[in-house]
Amino acid sequence: MKSSRRNPRFLFPAVLSIMSVLLLASCGEKDEDGNEFMNPGDNCLSCHGAGGKAAGEAQFTLAGTVFPSATSATNQGLEGVSIEVTDSSGKKISLKSNRVGNFFTSESVSYPLKAVKVSKDGKEASMGTQVSSGGCAGCHAQPASGGAPGRVYLSL
Predict the structure, then answer these.
(1) By C-alpha distance, which of 81, 55, 21 is closest to 135?
(2) What is the pTM for the complete model shown?
(3) Among residues 49, 51, 79, 104, which is most buried (max CB within 10 A)?
């Protein structure tokens, strides 16, 4: 008589395969530089901030997405935008947006930020207020919230 129990030797690879597919689906793929290009326009720090569900994998202190307008769709991020941040201690951090417009860092940052500037091809835009959080899409979202005009954007 055959046992109805499953052979654990075959069950483990199946479970591992399913978990790998789910992980890739939730985190997106990586570009050639290892930069994530998942979920443009979402608040990256909701998962990748301190205590977030992906913080063990990649914890960021500052992250966002640059778009061509305050009302752009999530598939319209701008690649190659320079993001320059000056924190409250005077430390300057320079970032570059990846192919979907995402930018991020794990460097230590002292809040509030004194200055945030985005630039590309001779065009630039700056924030006129101090920034108290590194999750840009916490305010720069669609619909706009927290006094922001909408998404982080640079009109080219």
Answers:
(1) 55
(2) 0.75
(3) 104
